[in-house]
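Entry 14. Ran structure prediction on the chain below.
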Amino acid sequence: MVTHVQGLIDPQDALVTPLGEAVRDAIVVPILRENDGILIEARGGDTVSCFEHAQDALRAAVRIQQKLDALNMSQQFKSLVLMRIGLHSGEWADGNGDSHGDTVAVAACLESRAMLGEILFSEDTRQALSDPAEFQCRLVEPVVCADRMKPCQAYKAIWAPDEIEQPIAQDDVHLSRPTSKLTLLLVVMIPLLLVLAVSLWQSYGEAFFKKPTRTIDHHVTTLLIPVKSCEVHAGFGSV
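Output, structure tokens:
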């Protein structure tokens, strides 16, 4: 882990280096020890340290930023004290026993690309975390580091309370249940309503919307004419 402390100095405050050293000794070093970190190098307020476990390194980084935030809120110093932190996981020493090998170089690269108050860590560190759920992180733009052909995938650790995403409250979960039941009811009822509509159409729709047709009724009227009866007399005569 590589840290760089920087103060946003008041124009009348010239204690830049002593301020960084005070922060290092009062905050950084004790937190490193609490999380099984080993301080390898310190230059002013900047430090290089190593950890056996990535989880401890990220936990220490988050704790350092939180302590600095509390320090700034207390207004103990005239200036705000801000820190950039970079983490990378890998072999601590190279083949020549140099502790400033590729792992430290990448961590330093991430630290230099971080904004003041940020923690950036690599994909290798993310993969090495034993409990990733302990921390919230955000994927950021890959970082191009010298002497590396591929950009380094980077993540930002979320440590500030106003940035941490809050879980859904239990009450909110209960409030959302009626909506789920309503959705299920609609899923069941809509097909039934469609079937009912088709059935009604087949029964009444065609008759209701059928076009009227003209029919011709043929009526046969029987005319009854009364006929008076008459008597017919037939006579026979002889000549």
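Strands lie at 2-8, 37-43, 46-51, 80-87, 119-122, 136-139, 154-158. Will compare against last week's run tomorrow.
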